[in-house]
Write a structure and sequence with these properties.
single chain; mainly beta; 12-stranded mixed β-sheet; 7-stranded mixed β-sheet; 23 strands; 7% helix
């Protein structure tokens, strides 16, 4: 090989390597929702985009930042969960007049197998302390242990440092001010907050042409010190919105309208899902099409209002049994 050919080959190799290195640097661990209001529930969905230099990931370790309290990890099939708890740096106000002085400080998912060719999400639910300052940030430091090597996403920008210049940045959560009495979902993710109330994982299902009813599913978290009640449901896609419950009695599935509304206990939650409690959209004005959204307005007894958009999943999608609305 001539010197000229050798130099060309070396230069070409270097040029090809540049986008690969740049792409790896940009594909860092991140949070699905990068902003949350203080004094509200928050579901931290950490997205793991790749393995360690081609090797699969078998352990994901997360350091819980100070100010993200009352944390609980979500189980993952095939993965073992271990937590480390300890005292917080300060005492935080919580619900029922109680205060929190300690909680989960670290979560580890291990024993799984996440190939480099795929991505996955690791989830922890908690509460953004109301004592945090608006405009501040919480940093989730994540370590990936792989079949070969490890990655540490732990860098935090210092004074005068742009976070985009970091090679291995920690996942960041921006803290907004107090939630308003009304909130809008905005990003069409099926999530929104209003004060101490938080709606998560909202969705609806596509309908067949000519269908007259549809259902909506979601989870409502109440981090407040008093119970609240969902009293009405409105959507422009139907003439009427109601709250329904389904129960099995003597082998027969029965559905009833919750005329008094649905109570969300203080410090608790209510899950609306296929085969159980759900939102009912009656006398549809249009067909629900997968990939679109359903605007929904939820009004609570306290006066709080939450407006959000429920993503529409494909016809037949279900995380449980059928809704059983064919009898309408």
């Amino acid at each position: 090989m001539s010197l000229k050919t050798s130099l060309f080959s070396t230069a070409a190799t270097a040029l090809l390597a540049v986008p690969l290195v740049s792409g790896a640097a940009n594909a860092h661990v991140s949070l699905e929702r990068s902003e949350a209001a203080r004094g509200t529930s928050y579901k931290a969905v950490l997205k793991i985009p790749h393995g360690c230099d081609g090797a699969s990931t078998h352990t994901v370790r997360v350091e819980i930042p100070e100010g993200f309290i009352s944390v609980k990890p979500m189980p993952k099939p095939g993965w073992k969960i271990d937590t480390v708890s300890g005292p917080y740096a300060k005492t935080y106000a919580f619900y029922h007049g109680k205060s929190l002085k300690e909680g989960v400080k670290e979560i580890q998912w291990s024993g799984g197998d996440l190939p480099d060719a795929y991505y996955d999400e690791f989830v922890a639910s908690g509460f953004v302390a109301k004592e945090l300052d608006p405009g501040s940030s919480l940093y989730f430091k994540v370590t990936q242990l792989c079949a070969k090597g490890e990655l540490k996403w732990v860098e935090v920008p210092g004074p005068g440092v742009d976070a985009h210049d970091l090679e291995a940045p920690a996942a960041v959560l921006k803290i907004a001010g107090d939630a308003k009495s009304a909130a809008t979902g905005g990003a069409d993710t099926g999530s929104a907050t209003a004060g101490s109330l938080a709606v998560e994982d909202g969705w609806s299902r596509a309908t067949a042409d000519g269908a007259k009813v549809a259902a909506g599913y979601l989870t409502i978290q109440n981090s407040g010190s008093a119970a609240d009640t969902l009293v009405s449901v409105e959507t422009p896609v139907s003439d009427k919105g109601e709250i329904h419950d389904m129960t099995m009695t003597d082998g027969v599935m029965r559905m009833r309208r919750l005329a008094e509304g649905l109570e969300i206990p203080a410090g608790g939650s209510a899950e609306l899902k296929p085969g159980g409690m759900h939102l009912m959209f009656i006398d549809l004005k249009k067909q629900l099409v997968a990939g679109e959204t359903v605007p929904v307005k939820l009004t609570f007894k306290s006066g709080a209002v939450i407006e959000l958009k429920l993503p529409i999943r494909a016809l037949g999608s279900s995380s449980g049994s059928s809704t059983g609305h064919s009898h309408h």
